[in-house]
Design goal:
By secondary structure, this protein is α+β, with helices and mostly antiparallel strands. The protein has three helices and four strands, in the order βαββαβα.
């Protein structure tokens, strides 16, 4: 019985100062590399522009993308070769996942819910005396 390919996370941080066309091209090329290496994309998550934990190349934000895929051990190396030299990539990391992990949270929904809770509720008009 053949072993099932492991699941990986590709965490990709793209430069917000780069053109939208360039960022789209980097994402499309990453997906093309996955497909050309017989990897299967399990899920794609666009987390939008978020503040980074620390300054990277004098920038405090990046466009976050998470691609989960199943593939052989050659796939992370192929992604590494491309993403190391691609323009518009701030950071990337490929992580092999253990089985049985919970699904990826929807950070966009969590962010909008937190913003809605932080927004002041409509208050009654204030009477000035």
């Amino acid at each position: 019985m053949p072993a099932q390919n492991p699941t990986y996370d590709l965490m990709l941080l793209l430069d917000t100062a780069a053109d939208e066309e360039l960022r789209t091209k980097v994402l499309a090329e990453a997906e093309r590399i996955l497909e050309s290496n017989s990897a299967t994309i399990v899920s794609k998550h666009d987390w939008g522009v978020r503040r980074t934990a620390f300054e990277i190349r004098h920038r405090n934000d990046a466009e976050y993308h998470l691609l989960q895929f199943q593939g052989g051990p050659e796939v992370p190396a192929a992604l590494d070769r491309y993403l190391r030299i691609a323009d518009g990539v701030v950071r990337f990391r490929v992580i092999k996942l253990r089985s049985g992990l919970p699904p990826v949270p929807d950070l966009r929904a969590a962010t909008s819910e937190a913003a809605a809770e932080a927004a002041p509720a409509e208050s009654a008009p204030v009477e000035r005396l």
